[in-house]
Amino acid sequence: MAYENIIFEAAEGIATITFNRPKALNALNGDLLDELSAAMDEIVADEDIRVLVLTGAGEKSFVAGADITELATFNTLQGKMFARKGQLIIGRIQELAIPVIAAVNGFALGGGSEMALACDFIYASENAMFGLPEITLGIIPGFGGTQRLPRLIGSNRAKEMIFTGKMISAAEAMEIGMVNRVFPQSSLMEEALKTARAIAAKGKVSLRAAKQAVNSGLNVDLATGCHIEADAFAICMASEDGKEGTRAFIEKRKAQFKGS
Ligand code: CO8
Q1: Which residues have C-beta atoms less than 6 Å from ligand 1?
Q2: DSSP secondary-structure letter at 220?
Q3: What's the mean per-residue pLDDT of the chain?
Q4: Total tally of structural domains belonging to the chain
């Protein structure tokens, strides 16, 4: 598929999706969401892709939210349908079997923060700003922000951000556990790709199992979570990668994972 609102690249096991509507600070409109969905179809179909990195075009914005000019035209039903469309597509990012890193290179507002929150972790540039400003527009976050943000940073901090609509800096976002690491803008992508390469060198089966165990475990009690972990562990032990990893340790050599 030819993309106009995103740039989709894949090389050496790492896919990169760059949100690319710089004139609107990479705001999410319906066409962009459709393209994102199609790119994810390509990723799912390509066994060689082991890690996905999301970022925004330019040095000013990751994603400045849903496209407000489009939102303003919606009636109630269209608004609900757009919210569900965004939720489903953003949900697919979270559910992807491979790790997903958000490289937030500027504004991550509204749907932009919500997109980043669905990734497995967030790296940010020093100029990045996070926020859920929907309240200022007389609406609320609609792409999962009221659900994922409290789970990540706690309900009180999340409510403060959601009720005030205020932006926080990358440094503050790191302090409250929303962002893992902050880099100068010039080195953000290289750092994200460096981590992506380190992850891509690990076994695909164990990465998938680790992601599923953490994600599924977050929604259940500890005892149930430990059962989920044990099942995921068993899948790894039965895999070729699991056998190769332990054998390589004993034979004092680097493991050659095949992804099976
Ligand atoms: N949508 C559309 N266009 C946008 C958006 C946006 N979200 N953000 C910026 N733009 C456009 C501006 O209109 C401007 O266009 P133009 O040059 O044609 O006037 C251009 O991008 C540059 O923006 P600014 O001139 O405003 O740049 P500043 O540096 O002065 O300000 C800000 C940058 C602070 C990021 C400012 O642009 C801003 O506040 N943007 C809106 C941020 C926002 O409120 N985002 C939340 C949107 S709502 C949302 O995400 C809900 C998600 C769930 C939806 C559920 C659906 C029902």
Answers
A1: 24-25, 27, 64-69, 71, 79, 82-83, 86, 107, 109-111, 133-134, 137, 141-143
A2: S
A3: 96
A4: 2
